User: What shape does this take?
Amino acid sequence: ADAAADAPAVVLTEDEERVAAVLLGAVQSRSTVVRIAGGWVRDRLLGRESHDIDVALDDMSGVEFAELVNAHLRELGHDTHSIGVIKANPGQSKHLETANVRVLGLEIDCVNLRAERYSDESRIPEITVGTPLEDAERRDFCLNALFYNLNTRSVEDFTQRGLADLRDGLLRTPLAPRQTFLDDPLRVLRAVRFASRYVFTLDEGLAEAAASEDIRQALATKVSRERIGKELEGMLSGTSARPALAVALLRELGLFGPVFSPPP
Assistant: This one.
């Protein structure tokens, strides 16, 4: 099925149009497909503003792309800024090197499409360059796995469920929920954060997996207190936060123990 079939249109702001022209101009002599991934696509389809632009490339690294973008900005006579490289840090869920480049005042994170394979012994995956489908499937939820293809100006839904879930306000995982949460147990708390901030419903299978004892154990033993604290802060503070709903969901899923227990 066509990943872009029947997808709603996203209208870019004037600033985003200018940035899009630079990003595409940087690779105009190549066959590179430039996609915006994840949260920006979700928020724009929900009619919300978003300045969180993550770009996923199909045939080069984020650093290579950022260098081409800076070269193109110089050609156009614009200011350029040094490229920030965020090294892979699996302990903080950064499994692939990311390049940050400033384009006409907007910060853009750049990375290549990727596939992740986990072993039972570790939460740290083996990373390979992936297809758009593989990249979409390794994301936490279907509605966060949408792409906006800048080349074709279309929303792409490779899981075939992201747009439906966004319309229905439903949180589902692209792959089996238990495996998704075991791969990275922090995703359980991300589910609570998204469900409470956006008033999304948890899919039945997702809620069942999130409340299981082995996921609770994995969250308590495999995830740092710092990362748990960061997710908790996202649930409880900020303009879109609904703390009472977040706390109710944590209690419903039996997550008070791993979230609020003091470190050993």
Q: What stands out?
A: The radius of gyration is 19 Å. The chain is about 40% helix and 15% strand. The longest strand covers residues 106-112.
